[in-house]
Amino acid sequence: MPEVDRSLQHLQDIPDLRILHETPLSQYTRFAIGGPASMYIETASAAAFLEALRAARQSGLPVAVIGSGTNLIVSDAGFGGVVLRFTAKQICIRGMEVHVEAGADLQTLVDRTIEAGLKGMETLTGIPGSVGAAIYGNAGAYGHSISERVTAVSFHDGEENRVLLNAECEFRYRESVFKRRKDWIVFSAELALRPADPDELRKIAADIRKIRDQKYPPTLKCAGSIFKNLILAELPQAVRATVPERVVREGKVPSAYFLEQVGAKGMSQGDIRVADYHANLIYNAGQGSARDLRKIIGELKARVQYRFGLELEEEVQYVGF
Hints:
The protein is of the alpha+beta class. About 30% of the residues lie in helices and about 25% in strands. It is built from nine helices and 21 strands. The chain has helices spanning about 5-15, 45-60, 105-115, 130-135, 175-180, 200-215, 235-240, 255-260, 290-310, and strands at about 20-25, 35-45, 65, 70-75, 80-85, 90-95, 95-100, 120, 140, 145, 150-155, 160-165, 185-190, 195, 220-225, 230, 250-255, 270, 270-275, 280-285, 315-320. A hairpin with a 6-residue loop joins strand 19 and strand 20.
């Protein structure tokens, strides 16, 4: 029996796995775009996940690990390999310390900590996705990021289970060591929060959620902002001189500012459109394709590069290209 067949047979024998064949990945992405995966596997068991990961890699087929797909663009052709997802979602609150598994919904974590009278997660309300993905990309909003509350992250480095303390995670704006090491799989994290009045936290979260839902309606098929904002101090002097002070937020210049200058608002390619009210919001208005989505992203990057000499960097991740 060829190695690929032996490995795939072994996958079928691993307990606690949900295995689907030729399942459309569009149903696992917020863009609702993406062709089928040869094999899609999810599990809430870390042991089963690692056994499946080993078997998938031994098969020689391409392997991709995903979260809840909120920041994912999947090829129209799909993924000719094995897609794995870790779904464990336990949240344990002990005093001011929180243990949370990577598959937990970020909004659920926000809600649970608010109800427990713990401050530190409320500004992340309304950000879709899993906690593991939030740590991977150091998710944040309104001047705060999840890295401010992370004390340790448990993960698998391809050889063994390990724990990194906050400083070792190399968190930066929308970055972490896990984003650079694609072979490292986040399983859980420890957070340290502070006591606060739950009513005050609910009000902060409600105000933020109202603004966020107006900008990114929950039913909109999008990934939020497509491009990272830019650090003002890192821009060329000639470009910094053109940026109005009013647009700078916490030392960052919104990518939307530069996109507006190159006519991004209202652009479209098939059913893929740039919002007419937000130049850094691209959404699927119907039956959009990954091809058109990538085409409009490429066009926007080219326009900003030509006009300002800046290389915009996507927040989204790609699978199957």
